[in-house]
C-alpha cells in the first residue's frame, strides 16, 4: 500500500493598481461595453 501526499502552499497577496492603470482599465471597459451594445443592435432576435 502506498500513500502519496502532496503539499501545496498558496500565498495570496493584494494586487496594487496604479491610478494610470485604473483609468486605463475603466476606458477599456467602457469601450468594450459600447462595442457589445453596438453588436447587440445587429443581432436579429428569433
From TrEMBL:
InterPro entries named among the record's database cross-references: YrzI
Protein name: YrzI family protein
Origin species: Oceanobacillus chungangensis
